[in-house]
Design goal:
Elements lengths: L5 H7 L4 H5 L15 E8 L3 H12 L4 E4 L15 E3 L4 H5 L6 H11 L6 H9 L1 H12 L19 E3 L6 H14 L3 E2 L2 E9 L2 E9 L10 E13 L8 H7 L18 H8 L4 E2 L4 E4 L12 H12 L1 E4 L12 H13 L4 E6 L4 H6 L3 H7 L4 E3 L2 H8 L3 H17 L21 E5 L3 E5 L2 E2 L6 E3 L6 E7 L16 H19 L1
Parallel strand pairs: 1-2, 1-8, 2-5, 8-18
Antiparallel strand pairs: 3-4, 6-7, 7-8, 9-16, 10-15, 11-12, 12-14, 13-14, 17-18
Length: about 500
């Protein structure tokens, strides 16, 4: 079958992993493949993971190029919320927060329903602090020096926030480092095929000058990789058809936080070349989305950083319905249950308790108010009337919640109460409606401890093929904890770059 054209084979069949298990051979490149260009390492994707991989591969002496199919670099990473798990960081010490590698590991495994690959989780937890230090010392990333936050599912506050409140605070520094190292960054380059020969992955077939989503746009070119191809192409949350094959509930009525290019082409391509994939049907919805804006938006910052960490979430009946700091799946599912009952759900906070949000995201609350994403009221009663919440029930719920805050104990929902949280008494009051949005793919390519992609038939590494970030599976299990995505991408992206360069 090595004499067959891969292009013809692919056109004849979109063979998935199940088909390949019973197949005698994979789609392979012709022995006489002509290459238009040769490099050591090809990195596919320009988000957190891809840029980290490129930096480390280049520093290790490899000739590296980065390919990005969209017009702009950064993918989902550049619109990410800019929060990074940093166990042991100075911000934790400043706020006297006790944390440990073991506790971070436990939280990730617990949220993942122990479907995680434990060795990867341990490696991730062990490298949380050194990864934070790498972003500061190597890249020059700036974080808020006195702010530490807590996403759902974490036992304690442990995330730091970039000074600009966005993933761009890291991505732009990675791009700067790539330019400093002389790494070519090429946009509008669509990878049509990964070319696998008898001895492993040899390179890629691309379309240069690609115009998303026009499949036939651009000029076909073949690029050889003598050391390896590193796959950092992210998830498929923006691909409604493909995500519905995995989970039919995630239809087109649900918005996504992802950029439009978060589609499935390379997920299907890696299946076609015999790469092992797992847990693709575990797709996370961000529970803190707002229906008044498209995509990621900015409303989530109020819903999470203010209301989930320092306020409360209620339904239209005025009652709490979930632990506001539970993991994302628990919270998203809980909102959808309430919506199925015909009840909208809301995030509520008051003036004293929005101060952490104002500190972490200066000026953002004002933007939310201007865009009417968040509404502001002088009294709790006025808020209830304006939002359509039962006023008496809400007042009773807030009173009960204030007892929880004073006692630093939540017997009903077992929520963690922040040390600096105060009872919700003084106005003004703020409210935002909640709407889950498709956010993150937990599944993906299976890699070994050196980030090498495994073969679906042999479970052995495919020579010359590496992967990191959201394109991979097994790290997060059933649920990814918030603020762990950047950690995952950077830690394993760096490792993939180092290993590919050393091949």
């Amino acid at each position: 079958m090595t004499d067959l054209s891969r292009r013809h084979l692919i056109q004849g069949s979109l063979a998935g992993a199940a088909t390949l298990v019973g197949s005698a051979a994979f789609a392979a490149a012709p022995k006489t493949q002509k290459w238009d260009e040769t490099v050591d390492v090809i990195v596919i994707g320009s988000g957190f993971a891809g840029l980290a991989a490129a930096i480390e591969a280049k520093k290790a002496g490899a000739n590296v190029i980065v390919l990005e199919k969209m017009a702009t670099f950064g993918g989902n990473s550049i619109i990410n919320g800019g929060i990074l798990t940093a166990t042991g960081c100075p911000q934790q010490k400043l706020h006297k927060i006790e944390d440990s590698v073991d506790l971070l590991e436990k939280d990730i495994l617990t949220a993942g329903n122990y479907m995680n690959y434990s060795e990867k989780v341990r490696y991730l937890a062990e490298h949380a602090l050194s990864n934070y230090e790498w972003t500061v010392k190597e890249l020059g990333v700036q974080y808020l020096p006195d702010a530490i936050g807590q996403e759902g599912g974490h036992s304690v506050p442990r995330y730091v926030t970039t000074t600009n409140g966005s993933g761009s605070g890291i991505v732009t520094k990675e791009l700067d480092k790539c330019k400093e190292l002389g790494i070519p960054l090429r946009n509008r380059v669509f990878v049509e095929h990964i070319i696998r020969g008898e001895n492993g992955v040899e390179g890629v077939q691309v379309r240069e000058g690609y115009r998303f989503p026009k499949a036939e746009s651009g000029k076909v070119k073949f690029i050889r990789a003598t050391k390896g191809v590193i796959l950092c192409y992210g998830g498929f949350s923006a691909d409604v058809k493909f995500r519905m094959f995995q989970d039919p509930k995630l239809n087109g009525t649900l918005d996504t936080t992802n950029q439009p290019g978060a589609t499935s082409e390379l997920w299907r391509e890696t299946s076609a070349i015999g790469a092992l994939q797992v847990q693709n049907d575990w797709i996370q919805c961000g529970p803190w989305g707002c229906p008044r804006e498209k995509g990621m938006g900015i409303g989530w910052q109020f819903n999470q950083t203010a209301a989930a960490e320092y306020g409360l979430w209620v339904n239209a009946d005025g009652k709490r319905f979930v632990n506001e700091l539970a993991n994302r799946k628990v919270r998203a599912d809980a909102i959808m249950v309430e919506q199925a009952k015909g009840l909208k759900c809301f995030a509520i906070c008051n003036e004293p308790n929005v101060q952490p949000l104002k500190k972490q995201r200066p000026g953002f609350l004002e933007k939310m108010l201007e865009r009417k994403i968040v509404e502001k009221y002088d009294t709790l009663e006025a808020l209830a009337k304006g939002a359509g919440i039962k006023a008496d029930a809400l007042a009773k719920q807030v009173e009960a919640f204030n007892g929880v805050v004073k006692a630093k104990s939540d017997p009903e929902w077992s929520r963690y109460i922040n040390n600096d949280q105060v009872p919700l008494v003084e106005g003004p009051w703020y409210v935002c409606e909640l709407q889950p949005k498709v956010h993150h793919c937990m599944g993906g390519l299976v890699t070994d401890n050196e980030c090498r992609v495994l073969d679906v038939r042999t479970y052995e590494p495919i020579a010359g093929l590496y992967a990191a970030g959201e394109a991979t599976g097994g790290v997060h299990g059933a649920v990814r904890l918030g603020s762990v995505a950047i950690l995952d991408c950077l830690v394993f992206g760096r490792l993939a770059g180092q290993k590919a360069a050393a091949r």
